[in-house]
Amino acid sequence: MNRGADQIALPLDWPQTQGDTRFILGEPNREAFEHFRKWSMWPVKATILTGPRRSGRSLLARSFVERVGGRLIDQADRADEEEVFHAWNAAQDSGRPLVMIADSVPPDWDIALPDLRTRIAVTPATTIGPPDDTLCQQVIDLHFADRGLHIPREALRFMSERIERDYWTAERAVEVVDRYAIAERARLSLPTIRRALLDAGMISSD
User: Fold this and answer.
1) Taking Cα atoms as reference points, which of 124, 120, 116 lies closest to residue 32?
2) Which residue numbers delimit the Hda lid domain (predicted)?
3) How many whole angstroms separate alpha carbon 100 and alpha carbon 85?
């Protein structure tokens, strides 16, 4: 898989972690990426990160907290409120930021603890958006590369244009195509990919 400059997750002068090589920077996640780069400007030493599942939100958050010695709470909107409350306070005392991953941003959270509610209200939030066409192609390409496979350019465009455009579907589509190609002993070509996705009901025959 060829990587352009915009596909490098974090500046090269930062220590690299394993997750960096898997986080593809694009327009849908650029705002979140820049938010973490400028964490010293946050009003409090905590933030909330939202975005679709499989969007790389956990990779981005883990990479960040590993660098700065922070703490990560996944599914924070469903976590124990006392735990989140004490973690938030500890982040302010230590200066080591807390990252909370959630499916939605406040005020969608149902917070019973008043002291936590006031703290979450002043916590900045950032989000990763749905993939655009470019990022969708890059995600598909990455998942094929993980399997040691090269997908032809025209087949890559076909997949990104025909499947439902979300991170989870892109990953599942690659798995469907790979399994079909193995079962049929078929070359990874546009006709093979079309048949695999049609058989799986992931695209229409139109």
Assistant:
1) 124
2) 138-197
3) 11
Helix (H) or strand (E) holding 168: helix 167-184
Position 205 scores a pLDDT of 84
DSSP helix/strand/coil, 102: strand
Q: What is the CA radius of gyration of the chain?
A: 20
94-125 pLDDT, tens per residue? 999 999 999 998 888 999 999 999 999 999 99
Q: Which amino acid is at 96?
A: R
Q: What is the domain extent for residue 174?
A: 133-200
Q: Which of 202, 203, 181 is nearest to 192 (CA)?
A: 181
d(CA 99, CA 158): 37
Residue 46: beta bridge partners? 98
Cβ-contact 48, 105 below 8 angstroms: yes
